[in-house]
Automatic annotation (TrEMBL):
Taxonomy of the source species: Eukaryota, Metazoa, Ecdysozoa, Arthropoda, Hexapoda
Catalyzed chemical reaction(s): (1,4-alpha-D-galacturonosyl)n+m + H2O = (1,4-alpha-D-galacturonosyl)n + (1,4-alpha-D-galacturonosyl)m
Keywords linked to the UniProt accession: Cell wall biogenesis/degradation, Disulfide bond, Glycoprotein, Glycosidase, Hydrolase, Repeat, Secreted, Signal
Pfam families, sorted: Glyco_hydro_28
Entry protein name: endo-polygalacturonase
Organism: Chrysomela tremula (Leaf beetle)
Gene Ontology biological process terms, A to Z: cell wall organization; pectin catabolic process
Length: 370
């Protein structure tokens, strides 16, 4: 009788996990695939494929490094708090193939940004970057609540076939006394086949910044407080391959109370490169203080030089269904500074009201109304 009952308990336990458990998971059913202490991380992630991280405190100066086994499902529960230390980070790194990472309802990843913020971002006291995602193979990361990034929030780097959905990246507390700075929402580099959808970013820098990527869709993203939907291309001074953004599409997004709606910049001191087949479609703007649409080919060392170059031509750019309004005395709906021969083959449908300054455009394609 006893052994029969034990058998049925084990059978029920087996039925409760979706994937076939590994030997170790079988042994550890009953809770040890749940991480509650930092010291448990490496043994659990090396032996389990169905993992819960519950109310974890990560010591300052350490990365919560989740190198997950193929096919792993990991769920964050409760508050994951990252201790304070003055280093580069990242605080959290998630990597793996075909992984599913979920934030349970009410869960938070707390970077404790307020303990670092000094209004100087990458300068000032040393601050860690927060989340780095390096996943592939149809991985899905969903429902993560990223709170109070010390500086850059989420780096999507070297990903292929990955979906990020229902993220809430909230650095709005950094608006207070303008202390939050360089708090980019999603930075995308060396990535292909990425979808970011149904997500919210409240921050003080780019909502999204794409550096190097192909086949990316950003859909239903709500941005506020920051610098808008950006491409920044030409960071590499030596490799034309590193300076490519191609087939990147923003659709059904809103940008509110931000410096820019859409911002495309190429680095005139970078190597040659490509921006091709990029579209912004159905983007609604409100409370934009500087530029509704800003496209500039004159960026160098973090500054506009006013001297555009065509080392990174912008071709096949489609900006349609971009509507909304500006605010404040410095507002300009459209600013385009292309080099001669630097911009061609654009679709244009921009209607932005309320700007205080006149549009200005240089070497824009002839169909672009300015
Ligand atoms: C099970 O876990 C132990 C300790 O974490 C590890 O040494 C062992 O290699 C694992 N065995 C398998 C089959 O994964
Ligand atoms: C532009 O990108 C889309 C989506 O990735 C793709 O379907 C389309 O073929 C591309 N168009 C060109 C001209 O490359």
């Amino acid at each position: 009788m006893f052994s029969l009952r034990l058998f049925s308990v084990i059978a029920t336990a087996f039925a409760a996990v979706s994937a076939l458990p590994t030997q170790n998971e079988t042994l550890s059913l009953g809770g040890s695939c749940t991480i509650k202490e930092f010291s448990q991380v490496s043994s659990v992630i090396s032996s389990c494929t169905n993992i819960v991280i519950s109310g974890l405190s990560v010591p300052g100066g350490k990365t919560l490094d989740l190198k997950l086994k193929k096919g792993t499902t990991l769920t964050f529960e409760g508050k994951t708090v990252f201790g304070v230390a003055h280093w580069d980070g990242p605080l959290l790194q998630i990597s793996g193939e075909k992984i599913t990472v979920k934030g349970a309802s009410g869960s938070v990843l707390d970077g404790q940004g307020a303990k670092y913020w000094d209004g100087k971002g990458d300068g000032g006291v040393k601050k860690p970057k927060f989340v780095r995602v390096k996943a592939s193979g149809g991985s899905v990361l969903t429902g993560l609540h990223v709170l109070n990034c010390p500086r850059q929030c989420v780096s999507v780097n070297s990903c292929d076939h990955v979906t990020l959905s229902n993220w809430n990246v909230d650095v709005s507390a950094g608006d207070k006394n303008k202390l939050g700075h360089n708090t980019d929402g999603f930075d995308i580099s060396s990535t292909s086949n990425l979808l970011i959808e149904n997500s919210v970013v409240k921050n003080q820098d780019d909502c999204v910044a794409v550096n190097k990527a192909q086949h990316v869709t950003i859909s239903k993203l709500q941005c506020s407080g920051g610098h808008g939907l950006s491409l920044s291309v030409g960071m590499s001074k030596t490799s034309a391959e590193a300076n490519v953004v191609k087939d990147v599409h923003f659709v059904d997004c809103t940008v509110t109370n931000s410096d820019n709606g859409i911002h495309i910049k190429t680095h005139s001191d970078g190597a040659h490169g490509t921006i091709d087949n990029v579209s912004y479609k159905n983007i609604h703007l409100s409370g934009i203080a500087k530029f509704g649409v800003n496209i500039q080919q004159d960026y160098e060392n973090g500054h506009s030089t006013g001297k555009p170059k065509n080392n990174i031509p912008i071709t096949g750019l489609s900006i349609t269904g971009v509507t909304g309004s500006m605010t404040g005395s410095n507002s300009k709906a459209v600013y385009i500074l292309c080099a001669s021969g630097g911009c061609s083959g654009w679709n244009w449908g921009v209607s932005i009201s309320g700007a205080k300054k006149a549009n200005s455009c240089t070497h824009q394609p002839s169909n672009v109304k300015c």
